[in-house]
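Side project, low priority. Logging it here so it doesn't get lost.
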Amino acid sequence: MFALFNKISLILSFVIMLQSTPANAQLAAILGGGVKDADGSKVEAPIDEFGRNTPRGAVQGYIEAMASEDFVKASQYLDLSYLSATQRTNKGEKLVQLLQYFLDRGGEIYPPMLLSSDVEGKKDDNLPSQDRVGTIILGGQKIPVMMIKVTEQAGNNIWLFSASTLKQLPPDAVGEVHSLVNKGLPRVLVSYKIAGAPIGHWLVIIILAFASYYIAKLITKYSLSTGSKILQKAKRENLIKIAEAFELPVRLYLGVLLFIFFAKAIDISIILRQHFGGFASIVAGVALLILLWRLVDEVVELFEKRMIKHGNYGALSAGLFFSRGIKTILILIGVISVLDSFGIDVTTGLAALGIGGIALALGAQKTVENFVGSLTVIFDQPVRVGDFCQVGETLGTIEQIGIRSTRIRTLDRTLVTIPNGDFSAQKIENYAHRDKFRFYSVVGLVYETTEEQMKAVLAGFKQMLADHPSVDPDPARVRFVSYGDYSLNIEMFAYVRCKDWNEFLEIKEVLNFKIMDIVHKAGSDFAFPSQTIYKVDAK
């Protein structure tokens, strides 16, 4: 048990180290991050050694200092400008402990993902040079915890916990936090700490995470079961799958909400809550992405079923194309959100992509061409999945229309992949959507056929086409067209109404048998290549 606990402690300590300000600064430097001004240009002032250039960096730096119980360093994150130089030395550490005291007792600091990583702070909160980063409870009322942007003597703009917040803290309130979690734990588990938080809090918060998940699981499972019964009674089975898509995401999101609520209710250390709060936000974000992913699958499936029902097979390709496109966007959003939650300045990377866009476009001309070709194939719909067609020299059935290429299953059962840029530029002959099939035949009769026999054959052929229900009478043409090298040639031309090539072959076979019967009944015969040799006796 202790070995397992040690492993968990090491893992969690490593995670906390990743979330610390120096680690984030290193990662941001590696990925080309930097401090940005409001217009996106780089600030010439040096990066603050305590990471206070942004509200998020200041909060994470404060939490890191409190975790290491370095109260002197933690005081560097407080706006003590309202105190004299002597008072700052004496009262700075006390104010640090006061702030932590009230944050532990029902207070909160927002998760890192909700804190601004901009040097100007949030721009949509109508609080110039100020950001709200959390709340504390004073006298039964919620008081906002504010950060303010100040300018140092060196001219560097930094963010600090505001003096207006610090002035409201009662100076005589410091003492042991008599919280629910502390009352229920042995003294030894409260006294000894790991990464600034009592060992008991670590144990409780891990148990709390599992308990919150299983409570959420029971709630969602029961809700889904009840909802499925209601939908079945209402004969809305098509909505059951969509309801099932909500189960896992809602379970994860509800588990996060329960976890945050219980951790705050029993006064888990703010240091621990802040570190786990970052991961709780990531889990909530992942839950949302999973929900959107599943909804895309279910909506596309319902869309495909409806299109198949209405015979609109071309829309299947469009559904598959946009499904992949949306999923690609979801993956990109997820990666950017996770990087942003760890304090990595993703805006710098995006700006770098914009600067290198021309070079990228030059190097990816084929990719862009294939993407444009994909749009052409999807919207113009020269072919659809399942169509039998000829593209250039390739004859076969369209098996898949992707973002980059289209796959064709040939008659030899091989799979040919054609980039969509090339595909859209080639001559495409689609055999799948013919409304009629052409019946064309040239029948050669022997030269011994008499005029009466020829007329009987022509009349029989015309009647044959007129009598068959699948032959379109306009046009249904039969003509004695030419004298061949060895045959008298009759041409038949007509259109046959049928649903596919196999049915046409069946009808064509029936017509060919009738042709044989008509010729033989008329007393004529089919010609074949032959020569007549005349022998002249020499005298």
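Brief comment: The longest helix spans residues 270-309.
Revisit when time allows.
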